[in-house]
Design goal:
By secondary structure, the protein is α+β, with helices and mostly antiparallel strands. It is built from 20 helices and 29 strands. The strands form seven sheets. Strands 1-11-3-2-6-5-4 form a seven-stranded antiparallel beta sheet. Strands 9-8-7-13-12-10 form a six-stranded antiparallel beta sheet, with helices on both faces. A five-stranded antiparallel beta sheet has the order 15-14-18-17-16, with helices on both faces. Strand 2 and strand 3 form a beta hairpin.
């Protein structure tokens, strides 16, 4: 496919490979359409450097005679005056077209328009016929009516149809179409006015390659392009390149620029002889074209072309207005839905409830048919969604393959092949990442919509290679070619995406508010807890006095009045004193529990073995002697407050003694281990043990697994142990089986000596 030395190369000064229409250098084509005569004039000297070889037919002078002449010698001084002022002001737009009736001193057969423009150091002058009818009052009336009709169009559709038919009347083309581009620059005919005998092109699509990239760029720049006769032999530009610089004449802005051979073939295959295309521009992008076809040669006067350019601007203005209006309307609608969602979320500070479990849901925001929310590690769905497993797979893919936090497609399977399996419900996906780690997402789904699209000829054969030299040629047939478009959903628009992004901000606001509310609640709770602690401290403290009085009096009763009481009376006194004992135990334990959190802890580096020994020795000797007690040696240091640690050890050891006392030989082992970050002290016994299901709850206050009858106690001891450990920012746990003994572990972090 290396060379394309077909007939085409006489059109270009550089050797160009016609295998790719996107590369065709259409602006430096060295021919000009035969209906016009072109002059290239040096701006400094006004000497004529280029001329098209049809100057004899149009201007009455052979090109040899025109070349090297001075422009001032050929044009009337008044005309030269206009040209000079155009040059000076650098504004040819306001002087074009200049009416030309004579050239080189002789009167011309017809009146011409001279259209001038500047290209680098060369002024390009193009002469084309002037249509006398255009200045008639009838034509002016007609144009005025056309503008009025177009401006009063009811809606955009009506606007397009009106424009097409008015342009047809004004220009007399056989067919006038409004052609709209999609994202990839494939076009669709959205309005058409045509001669009755012609078959309709309305709603047909044309592939992007029909109007290659550089042709689109020229449309955007020049806005109007006219081809007067696709079958006439073009005029050559003499010389093709500048005699001094050797550069070809740049015809970027020429009105009669020669037509690319590929495009001529395209028009011939379509049976079109003359055409005019006018750009419709929106936001500096080529939105569409007004495309006119004629089946005979046709020149439309320069002024009419300008008029059509003006009509295309009216369309652009309408489009922008309409879009702004639609956008505002939709925005208003979605804002209402968003504010409902926000209100729902803030009711209980619940994102899930607010978005999925109330009157308004995620689905109301953008007409999705299903939505999924991945929040706090759990997936929730609403409407028509893929399976949970598939959604999680999709989120995984999004995590690894998309950079932006918003991803949208109306053809998921084109990005993620596994999406084919879920195309029925999720050909369309709009995803919104709410948080990174762990990932939190909202996904909206839209189902597949199968459509039949009519193309003007098979788009896959839009351009083909033919012949031995692999020449590029446009398709031969423009008959309707039906394509079934699958795996796609209704696309998401700008409003859908914007509202999703705004929703993310709403959610973040709710999460922050929720966090602040929790902090406030936490603070309140802490204060209440403190109040409760000081209350229980004062209650237990205050109860001690009257209890002591009761104890004193019951002792007096027992000692001094025992003989005077019958058996029942003596039994009552017994019960009173044992209840007082129990009550004392309770009060002491509660007091110990509330004291722990009232004070700050002053941490010391302690030797656990000596603390354990001291606590162990404080138990009555009779109890100790029954037990086989073992202290594991050596032990790493522990960082703790000494009184709290002793309280902890005392509770664990007394429990170990108590709950192993029915063993033939009660055995207790105490030790400590360290991993460099913390020291774990353990207390092991071979007592009654407990069911693992109770391992958590035994640390709550007053929680007991045994009856008072079998084992005395208050249910406060382990709560004290837990509180001590918590205050040290450590942890406590138990390993135990029913009947298999218990081991309690207390972890104390190793830290710098400090006050906690
Ligand atoms: P109590 O005063 O009842 O011993 P604790 O708070 O110290 O209160 O213990 C709570 C409960 O945990 C006890 O009632 C007992 O059922 C169980 N328990 C505590 N330590 C042991 C242990 N070493 N062996 C078996 N059960 C224990």
């Amino acid at each position: 496919m290396n060379n394309a030395s077909n007939g085409a190369n006489r059109f270009y000064t550089v050797n160009y490979d016609l295998n790719n229409c996107d590369q065709e250098p259409i602006h430096i084509i060295r021919v000009v359409q035969s209906y016009a005569c072109l002059l290239g004039v040096d701006v400094q000297s006004f000497s004529i450097i280029h001329v098209s070889d049809n100057s004899q037919q149009i201007l009455g002078l052979p090109h040899e005679e025109v070349l090297s002449q001075n422009l001032a010698d050929l044009l009337h001084p008044e005309i030269m005056e206009q040209i000079r002022s155009g040059l000076q002001e650098n504004d040819f737009l306001s002087i074009n077209p200049i009416i030309i009736k004579s050239f080189g001193g002789h009167i011309l057969d017809t009146t011409y328009h001279l259209i001038a423009h500047l290209q680098d150091q060369t002024m390009i002058l193009e002469f084309e016929q002037r249509d006398p009818l255009v200045s008639s009052s009838r034509f002016l009336q007609r144009s005025d009516r056309a503008v009025q009709k177009i401006q009063s169009a009811r809606d955009v559709n009506n606007l397009f149809h009106e424009t097409a038919s008015e342009i047809k009347v004004l220009t007399g083309y056989d067919r006038v179409m409004i052609y709209q581009f999609d994202e990839e620059y494939n076009g669709i005919v959205i309005a058409e006015a045509k001669e009755d005998h012609l078959s309709p092109y309305y709603q047909l699509r044309y592939p992007a390659s029909d109007i290659p990239r550089q042709a689109r760029a020229l449309f955007l720049r020049n806005q109007v392009r006219i081809i007067v006769d696709a079958q006439s032999e073009p005029a050559q530009i003499i010389p093709a390149v500048h005699p001094e610089t050797g550069t070809p004449l740049d015809q970027t802005d020429s009105v009669a620029r020669g037509v690319s051979p590929i495009h001529i073939e395209y028009l011939n295959n379509m049976g079109v002889r003359a055409s005019m295309s006018v750009a419709i521009v929106k936001e500096n992008k080529l939105w569409g074209l007004i495309a006119c076809h004629h089946y005979q040669p046709k020149l439309v006067d320069y002024r009419v072309r300008n008029m059509i350019k003006f009509l295309s601007r009216i369309i652009s203005g309408h489009l922008a207005l309409q879009e702004a209006h639609d956008f505002r309307e939709q925005g208003l609608q979605t804002n209402i839905v968003r504010s409902h969602l926000l209100e729902q979320m803030s009711r209980n500070w619940s994102v899930l409830e607010g978005l999925m479990q109330n009157k308004f849901t995620l689905l109301d925001l953008n007409q999705a048919s299903g939505a999924a929310l991945l929040l706090d590690g759990r997936l929730h769905t609403i409407g028509e969604c893929p399976s949970e497993e598939k959604i999680m797979e999709l989120i995984d893919w999004l995590e690894n393959n998309t950079d932006s936090s918003v991803f949208e497609t109306n053809e998921l399977s084109a990005h993620w092949p596994a999406g084919l399996e879920i195309k029925d419900v999720a050909s369309g996906l709009l995803s919104l990442q709410i948080a990174h780690t762990p990932p939190e997402y909202i996904l909206w789904f839209r189902p597949e919509i199968i459509q039949t699209v009519n193309w003007g000829g098979n788009p896959e054969k839009a351009v083909t290679f033919s012949g031995e030299q692999m020449r590029l040629s446009p398709r031969k047939s423009f008959d309707i070619w039906k394509e079934q478009v699958q795996n796609t959903a209704k696309p998401w628009d700008r409003n859908d995406i914007n509202s999703a992004i705004a929703l993310r901000n709403d959610i973040k606001e709710i999460i922050i508010e929720k966090y602040q509310e929790i902090r406030k609640l936490n603070q309140n709770l802490l204060e209440a807890y403190k109040d409760l602690e000081s209350f229980s401290y004062s209650v237990s403290h205050d109860l001690r006095m009257p209890l002591r009085t009761i104890e004193g009096f019951s002792q007096i009763l027992e000692e001094d009045y025992k003989d005077k009481l019958d058996d029942y009376g003596q039994q009552v006194i017994q019960t009173i004193s044992s209840s007082i004992g129990k009550m004392n135990g309770f009060i002491n334990d509660l007091l110990a529990l509330s004291k722990i959190s009232l004070n700050d802890l002053i941490i010391n580096k302690l030797n656990p073995a000596s603390q354990i020994e001291q606590v162990w020795n404080s138990f009555p000797e009779a109890e100790r002697q029954r037990v086989q007690f073992q202290l594991k040696d050596p032990m790493p240091p522990v960082y703790a407050e000494v009184t709290s640690l002793r309280q902890l050890l005392s509770n664990l050891l007394s429990n170990a003694i108590k709950y192993s006392r029915h063993q033939e030989i009660p055995m207790i082992e105490v030790g400590a281990d360290s991993d460099g970050k913390s020291t774990v002290i353990y207390v092991r016994d071979n007592g009654i043990g407990m069911d693992p299901k109770h391992h958590q709850r035994i640390f709550d206050v007053f929680s007991r697994l045994v009856s008072d009858k079998d084992y005395e106690g208050t249910g406060v001891g382990l709560a004290i142990v837990k509180k001590v450990v918590d205050k040290h920012r450590g942890e406590v746990w138990v390993e135990s089986e029913k009947g298999g003994g218990s081991t309690f572990y207390c972890r104390f972090p190793i830290h710098e000596l400090e006050v906690l």
